[in-house]
Target: MarR family transcriptional regulator
Amino acid sequence: MAAAETLLLLVSMHRIVRHLRRSRTTTVMHPTQFLALMLIADEQPIRIGEIASRVPCSQPTATTTVAALEQAGLVRREPDPVDGRATAVVLTEVGAATVEASGQQAADELSNLLNRLDDTDRALVLKAGQALSRITKDL
Model:
């Protein structure tokens, strides 16, 4: 792939993500908190160390982030099912509702952006989303 095309894709993805973050009104949280919350939703139960490596952020930042999410009632800590000496983080009902609302709002806003394209380009972008999902599966 040509370097200019790759750079254009990168810049466009960043602009879309930035736009979606700015348009999010259902939750008011720091981007690291939002990313951690989405990761917890996908991977729960999950240890704080795993959150730190996957967000990515430092271990102290992950601990602070989980504490803030816990204080907001979005997550709770419980004994790790594999190692009872450790703790794992899971969503609360409020956290699950927040994830669902945030995901729906982001999907709606992205749909608004995609509606700026003609049918052919929109179908192409949606098909590319499937390929991008495959390459980001283990990130």
